[in-house]
Amino acid sequence: HADTAMYVAKSHGRGNFQFYSPAMNVATHERLLMENRIWVALGQQQFELYLQPQVSLDNGRVVGAEALLRWDHPELGLTGPERIIPVAEESGLILALGDWVLARAVALMAEWKRDGFAGLRMAVNLSARQCHGRELLPRLDRLLADAGVDPSLLELEITESAAMHDPEHTRHLLRALRERGINVAIDDFGTGYSSLSYLKLFAIDRIKIDGSFVTDIETDPNDAAIVTATIGMAHAMGLTVLAEGVETAAQRNFLRLHVCDEAQGYLFARPMPPAQFREFMMRAKGQALGPLS
Ligand code: C2E
Ligand code: MG
Ligand code: MG
Ligand code: MG
Questions:
Q1: For 176-217, what is each residue's pLDDT tens digit?
Q2: What is the mean pLDDT of residues 9-32?
Q3: If I label 52, which of 28, 68, 128, 155 is the partner at 20 to 30 A Cα–Cα?
Q4: ipTM
Q5: In ligand 1, which atom is closest to the CA atom of 266?
Q6: Mean predicted lDDT score pLDDT of the chain
Q7: Of the bound ligands, which one is closest to the alpha carbon of residue 265?
Q8: 126: CA distance to ligand 2 center in Å?
Q9: How close is the Cα of 210 to the center of ligand 4, in Å?
Q10: In 3D, which of 113, 100, 34 has the Cα closest to residue 67?
Q11: Quick one: pLDDT at residue 16?
Q12: What pTM did the predictor assign?
């Protein structure tokens, strides 16, 4: 722990680096171990994309799903992205992992097509490094063409900070994606430190309001103001809005009242393995998910 390390270093005087190195070695060792595990996992098919429904607030129907990375490790158990993505980002493994994610997502889209889930959108998270590499567009073209999947059913989610890392590159990338009919959503909207000016620079389709603004939406006037202003601004710019982290009927009702287009959250369904999502969709059969008001 950082505080402990500082304390130890201080108590032994300046320049005593030995008290840092054991901690660093542990961290480095952990990281290398994790990197190695990720490589093995890619080879052994230990990763999976869980699917969380995205619901239209107009009619309560499922309009898409977000693909969320999960790792079923033989010893570590089921692990979420927060333990995987940061290590993968730093080591460069994110490119191999991100490529696996894209391939798996497109394969699932082909399954949906066979299952007759017409018009269902697949939302996939992109890492900053994936956005800035040169492989993304050719890779997407090949995957979609080989699978015979409609590009307009694919949506790529990028965060403000990933987009703003190299705005000029992002602007070209998003143009190229739009030419292909691929949708782009800004993820975790409002949580970065970017100015709003990027919104007019980039060809985007959707804004995803971060769940942190949704939690207290009915009780915190500031959250309510941020959410309603975001919806108004997005609509005025011709963008659609999806609210993340919707857990209660009251939150959904607030969002519906303020004409938010779509929502995603535990109220509707948790992220689930693809087979379970398939059953979920078969059961739902285009019906609304619960009462709308
Ligand atoms: P995100 O893209 O903003 O995804 C939404 C997160 O909120 C997911 O966490 C989801 O499980 C969680 N969530 C959904 N509904 C609710 C709710 O009602 N309440 C609460 N409290 N949480 C909810 P998850 O799956 O742990 O993913 C965390 C983040 O990891 C994602 O945030 C995304 O940034 C990243 N991520 C996930 N999969 C991938 C991937 O394949 N590639 C990359 N690059 N990043 C990924
Ligand atoms: Mg996302
Ligand atoms: Mg998000
Ligand atoms: Mg997030």
A1: 999 999 999 999 998 987 888 889 999 999 999 999 999 999
A2: 59
A3: 128
A4: 0.98
A5: 18
A6: 90
A7: 1
A8: 8
A9: 7
A10: 100
A11: 41
A12: 0.91
Question: Which of 89, 94, 125, when mutated, tests ligand 1's pocket best, judged by the most ligand atoms within 8 Å of its CB?
Answer: 125
27-66 pLDDT, tens digit per residue, is: 888 889 999 999 999 999 999 999 999 999 999 999 999 9
As a whole number of angstroms, the distance between CA 266 and CA 8 comes to 44
Neighbours of ion ligand 3 (CB under 5 A): 187-188, 244
- The verdict on the CB of residue 91 being under 6 Å from ligand 1 is no
Q: Which mutation among 95, 244, 246, 255 tests ligand 1's pocket best, with the greatest number of atoms within 8 A of CB?
A: 244
Residues 96-139 have pLDDT tens digits of: 999 999 999 999 999 999 999 989 999 999 999 999 888 999 99
Residues ≥6 apart with Cβ < 8 Å to 88: 38, 94, 97, 127
CA atoms of 111 and 107, how far apart (whole Å): 6
Residue 211 Cβ contacting ligand 1 at under 6 Å:
yes
